[in-house]
Write a structure and sequence with these properties.
With 217 residues, the protein is of the alpha/beta class. 47% of the residues lie in helices and 12% in strands. It folds into two domains: 6-140, Response regulator (Rossmann fold); 152-214, no CATH class. It is elongated.
Length: 217
Amino acid sequence: MKKDGHILIVDDNEDLLLSMVQLLKPEFERIDTLRNPNTIPSFLSNNKPDIILLDMNFSAGQQTGNEGLFWLKEILKTDRYAIIYLITAYGDTELAVKAIKEGGTDFIVKPWDPAKLIVSLRAGIKLHRSQKQLEKLESTKNILQHDIDSQYDPLLGSSHAMNRVYEIISKVASTDANVLITGENGTGKELVAREIHRQSSRADKIFIHVDLGSITS
């Protein structure tokens, strides 16, 4: 099987890092290690690993997991699609569950089963690749949506009648109600519809315009 995947391991235990590298190096394309979590930001500024294995405790005597939770949140600030596996000691399942609620993907309990660990990491790599593809598609969608919206001028006017229109748009945009917009051709019905969409909770979704007059019965 061709080796694939980039894994970063962050743990202050040198023996653990060594054993991890020996186990994973034959299975994956690239393995990087960090002993000091403070070097995570600089590393991630130049590298995009598929998976980050993150210890929950770094300072001597600390068993709260707060350090791991802190760095988990810091990593997700820079990459919301980061796949982070938390390294925990046996019996810290409650802490691991808390970390997953904060955005972690999975957790590894020491001592781990080598075969299960490798399978889990391969699944994590596939998840990361699919999420990056999703991110790319979302970016493309946003660009297309912006280009389409830029073709339509915003609503203009400050008359009493227009102010009433703005007021109604503001009220209905925050609801899930169906809205029927009527008026003569050229009065700006589509502009009103687009403005309702822009102010709604679905503003990040695509506005689909269908010209019923062009549909044959």
